[in-house]
Amino acid sequence: MNNLQNNVAAPLYQQLYDAIMEKIESGEYKIGSQIPSEEQLSQTYNVSRITVRSAIQKLCNDNVLVKKHGKGTFVSLPVFVETVSAEGSFTKSCLQAGKIPSTEVIFKGLKKVDKRICDCLNITEQEQVIHMQRLRFIDGRASMLEEDYFIANFDFMLNKEVESQPLLDVIRENTGNTAKFFDDVIEIKYATKEQAKHLDCVVGTPLLYISQLVVGDMNQVLYYNEQYIRSDIYKFSVRSSNK
Known about the structure:
Elements: H1 12-26, H2 38-45, H3 49-61, E1 65-68, E2 72-75, E3 80-81, H4 90-96, E4 101-111, H5 115-121, E5 129-138, E6 141-151, H6 167-175, E7 179-190, H7 193-199, E8 206-216, E9 221-229, E10 234-235
Parallel strand pairs: 3-10
Antiparallel strand pairs: 1-2, 4-5, 5-6, 6-9, 7-8, 8-9
């Protein structure tokens, strides 16, 4: 029996909230697993069902638990939210949140691309571009597949370490250019066979798709980027202003 205390400042539902959180953080309740029923928790902690419901509801509101109709209550998969202060950098955003970012470069090389991408880079279809395909991880979980495109003059990207360094840092160090703004178009696309393989999901899974044009301080295009995101793992933040 894990009796809670009536003679302390924290209300019983908060004590139960903390007790469940402790079991999740210790690994006793694993991510994706079902927690005991309301009746079981009520008996274990010697509290009313109302107290149990209040604690569980607060945990659900905080995205720690999720209720599945007819099945029970489960420990939610953690969702990472990109911080606005990271200025669009996946690596910086993860580090600011105390997460471990990692990157696997799947492809890097010169190739010809379609007119749509050429138009974004302000080049002709006869010119080659530098194409980089990267798989991004948060604490070891595949969360994003990125397709990056650079004009051929950015050939230094072919020899640079990009697994742990933000692309904009590499560009600044080699050209002196910094990003002035990002033009983002956000849509939903459905995972292809290749994307599903890399992102460990089923074909047809809805993915957050962001096409991004990165423009430098001299109004020149630095690169064009496409992101296919597991939105159940990674959230993309946008800041709006009325100025």
